[in-house]
Amino acid sequence: MARSGRRGYGASRSPEVSSKAHRTPLMRCALTLVLFFTVLYARAQDVNVHIEPKPPAPPKTVDSKEVAGNPDSSLKNHGKPGVAVDVNLVLVNVTVTDDWNRIVTGLDKENFSVLEGSEIQEVRHFSSEDAPISLGVIFDMSGSMNDKILKAREAVIEFFKTANPQDEFFMITFNDRPQLRADFTKSVEDIQGKLVYTVPQGSTAMLDAIYMGVSKMKDARNSKKALLIISDGGDNHSRYTENEIKSMVKEADVQIYSIGIFSLAPTQQEEIAGPALLTEISQVTGGRMFTISNPNELSDVATKIGIELRNQYVLGYRPNNKVKDGHWRKIKVKLNPPKGLPHLNVYARTGYYAPSQ
């Protein structure tokens, strides 16, 4: 099984450049020139990492009372699962890309700032290490997937090729109703085997499947959790409503990524609403939605998502607002990039629920 390194997607072709340049004015000037020519080289070579990460640092130890680790504890202590178990330390996963959708690694804590509401917060915890992940795949097996099923299966296989030995996975398929095809396992082969016997048929209960996936994450062993949704349209057969699911994913500490295989000329209302629905559900959690029109693109996009999950930054801060009111608090992560880099994009969850007691 392939392993993703800490260089990020396509980094094997990337020149070695450090993002830290604070020793002398001459060094800063030299590094700016190096970064400038790195960007030009990257564009020519179409690589996916602009900045080489620093050598891995020893893992930082954080008080277990401060970090979100056990989803059950979150439910027990707060009633609503937020970003972290203890509001004393809010953890936010952050992805940085350029305008060509290539992952940027190697940034430092000083390159980020976090606002809660309009008030800037002090970033006390910073990490860019590849942490173990609990991953769930939400796989569309409705009848409309019949002509895309082979490519969709390949996409799942490629997605899991980025996995690490400490990761765990589960898979839910859905048509008229969701079904847990594979419970948490560390064996990629188990899930691949279950995919072989799936046959597309029936309607699309996607919202019910998302509900099942988020609920299943309560059994996750890893603090970092993510769902990948692969679907070709909107929902037309769920018991849960859009508002119920949107509220649920806001409360859950689970990143959601989506691959939408949408028709260029949708005729059904659910197909028309599908892209906006998946985009909103993904973005509020700090994930992303990728739209493709050709099933042949599925594998490449799935691989990109898998590697993106391996190259995220984790920012931790203690909120200035200590009030335990159970309210939704907006988060915005801003980037202060090193000079010489092109425009960069930041993806992070948009908020969390404060504890109520």
What name goes with the CATH superfamily of the domain at 133-310?
von Willebrand factor, type A domain
Number of strands: 14
Structural class: alpha/beta
Which percent range describes the beta-strand content? Answer: 15-25%
Order of helices and strands: HHEEEEEHEEHHEHEHEHEEEE
What's the main sheet like? 6 strands, mixed
What spatial form do the alpha-carbon principal axes imply? globular
Helix content: 25-40%
**The CATH topology of the domain at 133-310:** Rossmann fold
Overall mean confidence score, pLDDT: 80
Low-confidence stretches: 1-23, 29-47, 52-85
CATH architecture of the domain at 133-310: 3-Layer(aba) Sandwich
Widest sheet: strand ordering = 7-6-5-8-9-10
Question: How would you sum up this structure, described in words?
Answer:
With 357 residues, the protein is α/β, with parallel strands linked by helices. It has a domain of 178 residues: von Willebrand factor, type A domain (Rossmann fold), CATH 3.40.50. Helix content is 28%, strand content 24%. The protein has 8 helices and 14 strands. It has a 6-stranded mixed β-sheet with strand order 7-6-5-8-9-10, with helices on both faces. It has a 4-stranded antiparallel β-sheet with strand order 4-11-1-13, with no helix packed on it. Strands 3-2-12-14 form a 4-stranded antiparallel β-sheet, with no helix packed on it. The longest helix is centred in the N-terminal third of the chain and has 21 residues. It is globular, with a radius of gyration of 20 Å.
